[in-house]
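agent> Task received from the user: take the single chain below, predict its 3D structure, and emit structure tokens. No templates, no multimer pairing.
agent> Plan: (1) validate residues, (2) run structure prediction, (3) serialize to tokens, (4) report one or two observations.
agent> Step 1 OK, no nonstandard residues flagged.
tool_call: predict_structure(input=
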Amino acid sequence: MSDENTGKPSLDGAYALQTPEDSRRLYAEWAETYDQGFAEAHDYLSPRLVAEAFFATGCRGPVLDVGAGTGLCGLELGRLGVDPIDATDISQEMLDVAATKSIYRNLFTGDLTRRLPVPDASYAGIVSSGTFTNGHVGPEAFDELLRVAQPGGQLALSINTEHYVAEGFEAKLTALSDRITDLQLPVIRFYGENATGEHKDDTGYVALFRKLSD
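)
tool_result: status=success, residues=214
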């Protein structure tokens, strides 16, 4: 899943991920250079925009940052005063980088295609920037996120507009209409004006919704 010309991890490689093991392999290799080599180089806006969308709902903490990576979204949440924040990611190497930023209360590895090591109804808020943008984690993971969300909990999840209908996200949110409320889908650009390459104009929805109270 590396660039065929440079042999290094790349955005194209991330978009090509298909299995949890693919994700572990790519992000283990990418962790140390991700912030500068990807986020800064591609003018990556999504973490800040997801954090701001979440904050605007009025929800605070405790929050679970899903697919937290190196902590880019968590850092933005912290700047807005959201606290406490926990982080989960499939890559321990990415979490090791996030841990150096002193953002998170707890950090733990988790695979969204399986059960997270978290009790039911643990979090008032759940955010995710980047996890549902590449097509390798599907909408079936929403059931697990709702399990760990508190009744009335706020979710803010970025979803690539290209995958929203094609990969079943729209259908899943419709099917969850008896479990969620206040669905909004503002559109964001993932990358800023300095981005280059095939994906520089990619957009996403920030799916904002609340878990219905029991």
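agent> Step 4: summary for the user.
Strands lie at 63-66, 85-89, 106-109, 123-132, 149-160, 180-184, 187-189, 203-211.
agent> Done.
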